[in-house]
Amino acid sequence: MIEITVKIVNKAGLHTRPAATIVKLAAKYKCEFFIYRDGLSINGKSIIGVMTLAAEMGSEIKLTFDGADEQQACDEIVAYFERGFDEL
Amino acid sequence: MKSFKDIYKNSENKIAGIAAAPGIVIGQVYLFAKEKLEISKAPITDVAEAIENFQEALRQSKKELNKIFGIAREKMDEVRAAIFEAQVMILDDPILIQNIESRIAKEMIQPEFIVADEISKYQELMIISHESYMKERAHDIEDIKHRIIRNLQKKRWQSKIETNLIVVSEALTPADTLLFSRRETLAFVTDHGGLTSHAAIISRSLNIPAVVGTHNATQLIKEGDTIIVDGFHGYIITNPSYEQLHFFTEKQKKLQEIQKGLEEFRDQPAVTLDGKEIKLEANVDVTGEIDVVITSNANGIGLYRSEQILNELGVFPEEDEQAIIYSKLASRMYPKFVTIRAFDIGGDKFRISEYKEPNPFLGLRGVRFLLENETLFRTQIRAVLKASENKNVRLMIPMISTLDEVWRCLDIIHECKSDLKREKIKFDNHIKVGIMIEVPSAAVMAKEYAEEVDFLSIGTNDLIQYMMAVDRGNDLVSNLYQEFSPVVVRTIEHIVKAAKHSKIPVSICGEMAADTLAIPLLVGLGLDSLSMSPNTILYAKKIIRNFEYKKAKALAEECLQCKTEIEIQKKVKKFFDENNITRTRNII
User: Fold this and answer.
1) Mind listing the pLDDT tens digit for each residue in B395-437?
2) Given pLDDT bands bounded at 50, 70 and 90, which one contains residue B440?
């Protein structure tokens, strides 16, 4: 299992469009993917779940990946966070 | 025997409304409450069936959203488009679906309750976050929740609605009306709506008696009650007495005899006593109505409301699908013609975008919508052209308000023709293209418009509504919707003159043509054809065959001098009396 903390760097935060993109990216992989925030764990493959996350610019959230293709999934999704959801 | 007046005068148990579609019905009530989303927590017995219903509701919701999304994408900013996309994704959310399905199996209660409960949990999480945009997000989720539940309930209603009932409801959308008509509904009663609300129009065309605008019928009538609906006079009788039941049963018998008597006119032309023939055409709302059109022996279809396909299918059909529908229509009517009106979307008819227009009747509707959504418009034009091979199809554009719109439409049609030629597809290169005159600006400039197109058709419903600045669906002001207003009569005369000047045909396809009282006046104003609900055609024929054109012309000339609606109505009624013409209402 991989555990990693990422920071929200774009101005608009984790709004609906990036939420949808994250779920679409996660759907490509078999591994389990969870997002932790304010003591809640959210299944990263559930769009309605990810949409409950209020994550503004500067906030930090923890991601976990667990499964055979966890490394590839982690690489792609973390990179998307680091690119500020392509909104920088 | 007692008259209707006697019966109603002494009846405490009557509810007054607007007579929207003729007929007398005695039957049991089904109370249809749609607006309030009531969620049932009733237990279920068949888990597999419940899960299948849930999946079907998801599929249906996805179909609806994808269509809206497809159209919205071009027009909306990225943020709104993303919300749509997320909504579509929610319908595929594996975690959500899995949770709901396992709860249905475990708790054995109605899926709609579990859907509401599960999705609400997520909404609560959004609301507690204190971020204002999260509250909006919760609101967006509300829409998808309602959509799934609505589709689940539709399934439930459909299995619950029994046939042969009287539907009593606050309001009915065209889609509801169609849904019920498939269930052999006996009659419709609504709290809201006026004579020309679409529910009223559809019930007339499907021959289902209706009384609308009763204000509070849903509160006074209970499910399972036996009531009498009088679609001629606009009354409902609740808990009828033996005497009332007897009276209305006798009237029903009388009515059947009259209808039999009309049969003799079927194969005769609508010709005045002095030999002027008036073409009687049919307005068609739903495909199922074609049989009625054929038995009515109409001269053709003067108005095919193509947007009804959307109401029936719930989606925009592809080009080929549309071409099949139009071709079938054309070949069933051949050699008589079919006038296909391009999608008249907007206003109260079919809300397509999520953007709520503050004033839809003055908003993006008719040709304005079509020109904004050119891809969709081209798809329809191509489908109509494909159906025109046997040269009995005409195309009509709704809601024209500027000459520029006419030119743009003609350009697009020309381009579609060139494309089809290149693709070696057969069609009628000389297809007649006409416009609706239903906006005052077009009525005033009718002469200039007539020079550009092949025919004009007067849409009186909207024309009157826009001229009198009155919402026809609003029963608080519907008394200002005056068909016999001098303004209306003079405007019709102006349009007819314009068409004759350019030697093109002019017809009238609004509800006014179906008002048998208006027929002599319209004929006198010089209209050569009238398009109306197919079941009115025989009545109209009977009237036309009973007066002279010469006299009708004199009547029209007198009415053109009148200053008030009442004066005109008096003259028209006098005309009926003097020429001994009886109308249905007087007969029964």
Assistant:
1) 999 999 999 999 999 999 999 999 999 999 999 999 999 999 9
2) very high
For B193-297, list the strands marked E by DSSP.
Answer: 210-212, 226-230, 235-238, 279-284
Strand order in the sheet with A40-43: A2-7, A60-66, A32-37, A40-43
Instruction: Give me the pLDDT at residue B586, please.
Output: 47
pLDDT bucket at B360, cuts 50 / 70 / 90: confident
List chain B residues with CB under 8 Å of A16.
79, 82-83, 86, 137
What local confidence, expressed as pLDDT, does residue A71 receive?
95
* A residues 21-40 lying closer than 8 A (beta carbon) to B: 23-24, 40
- For the structural domain made of B274-587, what CATH number should be given? 3.20.20.60
- Sorted by where each starts, the structural domains of chain A and their CATH numbers stand as 2-86 (3.30.1340.10)
Strand order in B235-238's β-sheet? B14-16, B235-238, B226-230, B24-32, B166-169, B187-190, B210-212, B18-21
Q: In chain B, whose CA is at the least distance from the CA of A32?
A: B95
**Of B400, B481, B482, which is closest to residue B443 (Cα–Cα)?**
B400
The distance of Cα B578 from the centroid of its chain, to the nearest Å, equals: 36
Test B131 with A17 for CB contact under 8 angstroms. Answer: no
Of A46, A48, A54, the CB nearest to B134: A54
Per the CB < 8 A criterion, the answer to whether B493 and B526 are in contact is yes
- What CATH fold (topology level) applies to the domain B47-160? Enzyme I; Chain A, domain 2 (1.10.274)
**Where do the domains of chain B lie?**
11-35+170-243, 47-160, 274-587
CATH number among 3.60.130.10, 3.40.50.10860, 3.90.226.10, 3.50.30.10, domain B11-35+170-243 = 3.50.30.10
Average pLDDT of the residues of chain B? 86
